Amino acid sequence: MIKGIQKSKFGIITYIILLVFLALMAGIGSLMKYVLLPGIQRNSKYGADINLEFLGMDRHQWGTIHLITSKIFITLIILHIILHWDMIICILDKMIPRKLVRSWFLAILAIITLTQFINPFLASPALVSYENNYRNTAERVESEPN
Predict the structure, then answer these.
(1) Which of 83, 108, 123 is the last residue of a domain?
(2) Which residues constitute the domain of residue 103?
(3) Which end of the chain is more exposed for a tag (fewer CB within 10 A), N or C?
(4) Could you list the pLDDT tens digit for every one of the 146 residues in the chain?
(5) Quick count: other Cβ atoms within 10 Å of Cβ 21?
């Protein structure tokens, strides 16, 4: 493992990289939300048959970059937690002195975290039929069950 001053330098570099990726996620998310508007909002503001791009990429391409950035960020956060694991355990020992309560707390935290990571893979989308095959209109017709 990294020792002494090298560990401190590595930690600072990790913090800087985390900050850069956090800023990228926030910036790209804001770009997608407020500049590269989704269909209905885009159509009502600019009219139909208009596609918005920034630096030659549309909202979906920026969404892919946003996803990749968030995966890198999560990987760096996990690295950060691993590097500070001894400190985290020490703080938890002082905050929650009873071992049984601390174990339950960590188990519940692990279950909540894993559930949030797994949920997107278990979700199934609702099938919605649009009247007259217009995707981005405000009038939608829910499909009738057969």
Answers:
(1) 83
(2) 85-146
(3) C
(4) 556 668 778 878 889 999 999 999 999 999 999 988 888 888 788 877 788 889 988 889 999 999 999 999 999 999 888 888 899 999 999 999 999 999 999 999 999 999 998 998 998 888 877 666 555 555 544 555 55
(5) 19
Look-up of token digits 């920034």: 54
Q: What is the pTM of this model?
A: 0.70
- Of 35, 50, 83, which closes a domain? 83
Q: Quick one: how far is CA 11 from the chain centroid? A: 23
Look up residue 20 and give its amino acid: V
Tokens 């095959």 locate to: 133
First to last CA, the chain: 61
Total Cβ atoms within 10 A of residue 97: 9
Q: Are residues 12 and 58 in the same domain?
A: yes
- When divided into structural domains, the chain yields a total of 2
Quote the tokens at residue 54: 């920034």
Whole-number CA gyration radius for the chain:
23
